[in-house]
Fold:
Amino acid sequence: MLLLIPGPVATRPEVRAAMAQDYAPWDNDFRTLYAQVRERVRALAGGGAETHTALALQGCGHFAMEASLRSLVPAGGRMLIPHTGQYSARLATLARHAGHDVVAPEVSQDAPLDPAVVAEALAADPAIRHVGLVYSETGSGVVLDAAAIGRVVHAAGARMILDAVSAFGALPLDVSAMPELDSVAFSANKCLEGMPGLCMIVARTERLQQPEAREGGSWALNLGEIYAQYQRSGPGSFRFTPPAQVLASLDVALDLYEAEGGREARLARYRENVRTVYEGMIGIGLTPYLPRAVQGPIVVNIHAPADPVWNLQTFVDQLKRRGFVISNFFNTPLPSFRVGCIGAVTPEDMRRFVAAADAALTEMGVRRREPAPAAS
Ligand SMILES: *Cc1c(COP(=O)(O)O)cnc(C)c1O
Structure:
């Protein structure tokens, strides 16, 4: 069964095999492994040993974002979180729960956010000191130009925190070239192709050292406390019980990442996966949601076909019988289905998927495959 969802992703057997043993998390062997994973991830983000720290915590991507919002944005701070889609909306919810005063202007969800919109919002309201941004909007499939937006944030003297959960490891990122960036968050189980259960943050070390970093209203989801633990007990000391098997498998996943050729090779494979799905869906009479020019390399949304017999759950069940799992929900304003193009999957897998989708639609009797007319 092949997962074609935008996380958790299909993994390689070597990655899963690293889970098949017990680990003593306080043992020196495991400490060495953890410290090594932290260093590898910091380097991947472009962080300097003197300026940046990689931290890991138990849980999924949302935990890393909540910890960042609570530790690096001062309590009650005003934040700009443009409404780029489903995940920016969640970021805004996490920020509100952390007690921040969130400004979330409506922007186009079908095109990358214009940095000028951020510049204007910051100029209009100088009380905004932080910007929260989603690098790759997994809801729509659109990728933002995080570096360009970062530059306008920097020019306004504000700070930024970045949700790169569906971007890290594939899309370009150099935190050293982004002085405005306080943290970037991601999880093991998306473009790094590891197992779920571990999330990570690369943060500016000086921010973690400030006393306010330990005050965010949560003791468990607190980056200042995690950093203090490294200071007290060493760089391989995980705060509380780690998902040790997940961490060990991430180390193997990072080996495979390097063997593949690193970030650029991975991005090239994902782009080709997306291209294969995008063109393949057109070939079987369906319509991709986004224009080619703004379609990102992570997830493709396809308009639900107009035929009255169309039913997403039936389609999902039909695909599963043919060896593929896609999401049984959609995040777009109009009905769609989504195909994750990240993970240990290849363009050849995507070609087989397109054939399976065509066969499933035929068996369902879906003849009218153009988009359903928008409900007005
Ligand atoms: C997957 C994802 C998350 C986190 O999802 P979790 O289920 O908490 O791991 C956050 N932001 C984006 C953009 C994502 O794609």
